[in-house]
Amino acid sequence: MNIELTEEHLAVRDAARDFAQNVLKPGVIDRDEQQRFPAEEIKQLGELGFMGMMVDPKYGGGGMDTISYVLAMEEISKVDASCSVVMSVNNSLYCWGIEKYGTEEQKQKYLVPAAKGEAIGAFCLSEPEAGSDATSQRTTAIDKGDYYLLNGTKNWITNGGSASYYIVIAQTDVEKGHKGINAFIVEKGMEGFVVGAKENKMGIRASDTHTLLFNDVKVPKENRIGEDGFGFKFAMSVLSGGRIGIASQALGIASGAMELAIAYSKEREAFGKPIHQHQAIAFKLADMATDVEASRLLCLRAAWLKDQKINFDKESAMAKVFASKTAMWVTTEAVQVHGGYGFVKEYHVERLMRDAKITQIYEGTTEVQKIVISRSILK
Ligand code: CAA
Ligand code: FAD
């Protein structure tokens, strides 16, 4: 594996870091508290090429590799994990799915605006009764000749209210199990498509997570992605790449909290010396640095394999398990290093601790990742 960072990689990382520190940081506490979607900030991320980073420039994307994506996701997530989940879903679930498996017409109509950051995409797999057990889809899409008639409910959908376009997974033939599942592109505004309630969340509060309702929505046949029956494999394949994005989000949450803890430990004095001179604090920082570095290497390895077009299903799952566990304990310990100040909003670490938890749940829980890893090593 060669993950030597190039000049281009470092430039992408620096641009993301500047944007996070200068544009995202000033309003992040307020957006979290008010649950305000970062519309203006996402628009600017689009102008910088961060909403369709890996998309071919001929479809309006940045033409960058997955390593660049990991570096950018880490920097944005250090400061604003709400922004980074919007970015991650758009890049790796929506854009990548359509670019890899869509038709030329679908790419021109639905990929180009999202890759340019002019429209936002969403990915709708989860349902009230189908989360980890993703094959038990109850949303149906019945073939009516020129169109499919879509009925059902999706929940927990990131970008649910702010997206213009939605990849929706639905059952077209119950008898065929997962081989009777298809993926469709649905437009906001199609008759019968209703954006339902917005969730009031523990973390990533500025991202908008909604229930979506489909009541006799007529989806044109040409909006199906791939061959008939390809929808479940499509979802699994797309999620494998998406998990690199969420692992990088967890990495950024952890490294952001660690950086804050290091800086604070140099400022704060107790018993006549900076607190980092107490070995209990110094060792905590050493453990944080070790696990953050291990998380980064796992993310970069999965990204490198993806860029080499080598199967990375196991590696993206490993990166997500490890980085999300690291995010949980590093953020908790970063609050501890800050003492009482860590418990209030203005020091940022309490938000990072709340944001960390979701990385163990979405795009496949930690337990689901272990299913993927164990099946791979045992087969
Ligand atoms: N690529 C292509 N095909 C794949 C695949 C992959 N990575 N993984 C599995 N498949 C194929 C299998 O080969 C199999 O096909 P065949 O029968 O033809 O061999 C088919 O898919 C079914 O696979 P499994 O038998 O492994 O399916 P399963 O029912 O045992 O489920 C699972 C496996 C890993 C638990 C899967 O259901 C899963 O990943 N669940 C979690 C769902 C999830 O991650 N949801 C996230 C929603 S999006 C989100 O959360 C976004 C966000 O928050 C921001
Ligand atoms: P369940 O599947 O009911 O799991 C409950 C518990 O049981 C978990 O601990 C799980 O790990 C465990 N479990 C289940 N099966 C097994 C098993 N076989 N072995 C061991 N343990 C098991 N989904 C989308 O489609 N698109 C999105 O954009 C999206 N965004 C989200 C944003 C947020 C903020 C949240 C909270 C969720 C989002 N999701 C999205 C949904 C997310 O992917 C699911 O919540 C997740 O996959 C888990 O499904 P579930 O909540 O139904 O939990």
From TrEMBL:
It holds the Pfam family Acyl-CoA_dh_N. Its cofactor is FAD. Residues 6-118 form the Acyl-CoA dehydrogenase/oxidase N-terminal domain. GO terms for molecular function: acyl-CoA dehydrogenase activity; flavin adenine dinucleotide binding. Residues 231-378 form the Acyl-CoA dehydrogenase/oxidase C-terminal domain. It comes from the Bacteria. Residues 122-217 form the Acyl-CoA oxidase/dehydrogenase middle domain. InterPro entries: Acyl-CoA_DH_CS, Acyl-CoA_Oxase/DH_mid-dom, Acyl-CoA_Oxase/DH_mid-dom_sf, AcylCo_DH-like_C, AcylCo_DH/oxidase_C, AcylCoA_DH/ox_N, AcylCoA_DH/ox_N_sf, AcylCoA_DH/oxidase_NM_dom_sf. Keywords: FAD, Flavoprotein, Oxidoreductase. It is an enzyme of class 1 (oxidoreductase). PROSITE patterns: ACYL_COA_DH_1, ACYL_COA_DH_2. SUPFAM superfamilies: Acyl-CoA dehydrogenase C-terminal domain-like (SSF47203), Acyl-CoA dehydrogenase NM domain-like (SSF56645). Its EC number is 1.3.8.10. Gene3D superfamilies: Acyl-CoA dehydrogenase/oxidase, N-terminal domain, Butyryl-CoA Dehydrogenase, subunit A, domain 2, Butyryl-CoA Dehydrogenase, subunit A, domain 3. Coiled coil: none annotated. Belongs to the acyl-CoA dehydrogenase family. This is Cyclohex-1-ene-1-carbonyl-CoA dehydrogenase. The lineage of its organism: Bacteria, Pseudomonadati, Bacteroidota, Flavobacteriia, Flavobacteriales.
